[in-house]
Amino acid sequence: MATLKYFFPYKKSDGTIRVKIKLHHDGQRRIFSTDIYLLPTDITKSGNIKSQSIKDEIESLLHSYRQRIQELGVRTQSMTIDQIMEYIVRPVEQDIDFFAYAEKVIARMTGEGKKGTARTYQSAINSLENFLGKRSLPINKLTSRLLFDYAESLKTARNRSFKNNKVQVGKRAVSLYTGIFKAILNKAKLEFNDDDLEVMPVRVNPFLKFKVPAEELAKKKALSIEEIRLIRDSLPSTRRGQLAKDCFLISFCLLGINSVDLYKGVEIKDGRITYERQKTRSRRKDRAEISVKVEPEAKEILEKYLIKNKSVFHKLYSDHLNLNRAINKGLIEIGNLTGIEDLKYYAARHSWATIAVNDCGIDKYVVHQALNHSDETMKVTDLYIKKDWSLNDKANRKVLDYLTHGELSSDHDQ
Asked: Of 10, 220, 309, 337, which has the highest C-beta tally within 10 A?
């Protein structure tokens, strides 16, 4: 049987005495501190506490701990002393605030270098605050009814902002933001709930009724081969414009490499660039590794940004977000020169895939592999198949030949 008793073992250097709790269970003992302090004048010569108010405070704390032990009931017989102590000192459910917990999640993401994801999570939290009119919400008050009302408010919102933080609105925001709320709630359940012990401070499950809407495919403009040639032949007058043109063409020539992967660093070794795609590496067993043959078209441009065959984009910008921002700003100049509206860096990847399938007749599975996507239906099979990058190489060569010569190479079997 688990029992509790308070004591105050020694005086600190500042003269105060901290009250501690002693937990006994199954022949073992654990001691943990409280936030209650005594002064020497609070204690009698016989070692008793003089003040009734302090006694009441200690007894109130002990009572709350004993109540939590009673909640466990007969389960304490199969629990270790450490499990019992963890349960009685953990925050009670009303102390779990959704916003406060979300901020901890965002802080962890930032510390792990996931700054872009952290900013998106922050925008979602700002949006919820804007809807509620306050920045506090007991986690068990995140109900399906609240989510339905929140989603409806986003659908009708226009140019919504809060405290100078722009908040994305519209159909995509409903899917994106409510999906983030679901992810935060699931993280809280993993952290606070213990199914084995039936300890469930996070009880709410709003997503049984509220289904996160499927995100609509973003309208990423796939450029024609003629527009890619216009970009290739453009003559930007600014350094940023030249950087944007170069990075766009590098991406097109390297199977749509993302700007974050350029920033993290690429190295040409034995005529190839092998890297782990940052966007999906943490979600895949193969760490999203891909190897791309560096064709002459790519090497000619890349050499401007290489030192000893290693890229130096990380020396030009403080982080990958600033690199991506600079590229897209430079693409405004390229768009003005070529007449291509709303030109974005990601269009290089989207265009390569579209041209490969529609113009070059390359099999969609090969394009799927070249883009380094994970096929949910073939995950197990892929574990047994050694990756063969030659199919990607042939596909890329065919697309680049089409770009250069305006006609397909003789090899059509992709």
From this structure: 337
**3-class SS at 361?**
coil
Question: 9: burial class by Cβ within 10 Å (0-12, 13-18, 19+)?
Answer: exposed
- Cβ atoms of 82 and 74 within 8 Å: the answer is no
Give the residue-averaged pLDDT of 238-244.
Answer: 95
Please name the residue that has the structure tokens 């999640």.
105
Indicate the burial class of 292 (C-beta count within 10 angstroms; 0-12, 13-18, 19 or more). buried
User: Above 70 in pLDDT, residue 100?
Assistant: yes
Q: What residues contact residue 155 under an 8 Å CB cut-off, 6+ apart?
A: 170, 171, 174
Mean pLDDT of 164-187: 76
What average pLDDT score do residues 24-44 get? 89
Q: Which CATH number fits domain 225-405: 1.10.287, 1.20.120, 3.30.43, 1.10.443?
A: 1.10.443
| CA gap 305, 311 in Å, rounded | 5
What distance in Å separates the CA atoms of residue 164 and residue 191, rounded to the nearest whole number? 32
* CA torsion through residues 172, 173, 176, 179, sign: negative
Average pLDDT over residues 308-324: 88
> pTM of the predicted model, to two decimals?
0.56
Residue with tokens 């270790």: 80
Write down the mean pLDDT value for the chain: 84
How many helices (H) does the chain have, and how many strands (E)? 16, 10
Task: List the Cα angle 381/386/388 in 5-degree steps.
Answer: 115
Is the per-residue pLDDT at 193 higher than 60?
yes
Helix (H) or strand (E) holding 211: none
